[in-house]
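Quick question: who can interpret this fold?

. . .
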Amino acid sequence: MSIVTMLQPPPGLRVLVTGGGGGIGLTIARAFTEVGAKVHVCDASERVLEAMRADRNNESISATLADVADESAVARVFEDVQSRLGGLDVLINNAGIAGPTGGIDEIDAAQWEQTVAINLNAQFYFARRAVPLLRESPHGGSIIAMSSVAGRLGYAYRAPYSATKWAVIGMTKSLAIELGPAGIRVNAIQPGIVRGPRMEGVIAARAQQLGLSYAEMEAKYLEKISLRRMTTQEEIAATALFLCAPGGSGISGQAISVCGNVEVL
């Protein structure tokens, strides 16, 4: 096999992307369809899924409306995966929320619990149902968990988010050891400051917290990145593709930062 061939996933992979109706998740889903994969996504927003379906670029992507923090909804997602994909080769555990911005004494307990439910519990719900299918994959099976650079750095005023993203790394490394003998690889991607509406909301909330303008806050974020620029969604998707390609077949148990080297948050 040539080196170039090793950089592309095999055609026909069956892929599930959680939180795949928009943002990074949809960019990853589209990337997999471009290399011949069969892709199913789930998302908690009917509005987001309607917008996805309205775009002709997404015609080959099937979808389920589901709250990833609801275990019964997760079960319905896998019913659709079985009926539409006929099995599973790759799980992209992407769904997540930014969580609240504020000091630890200002954060409501319900906000903490919601962040844990969506960012961490959902990863467990999907992994436990995906593994029996991944064991049957002729490609060995792959789980890619979406963490964050906040899963390797402390993040003041964003404790719920950071705590869940650190936990995702712990689960990733544990599952890599547990599932490795079955040929299932488990890795995490740690995006940094990714350009898009979600990051704009995070910057705006942090600016308000610190009494700064949006432009001042954005400049402060960029100063903390060695490359002095935001990461793109396409760079995250390209990393996911490589992890599912023959060239990435020896990679497991790793937390891979795609962030331009964020130095501090």
User: Anything to note?
Assistant: The chain has two domains: 10-192+232-258, 195-230.
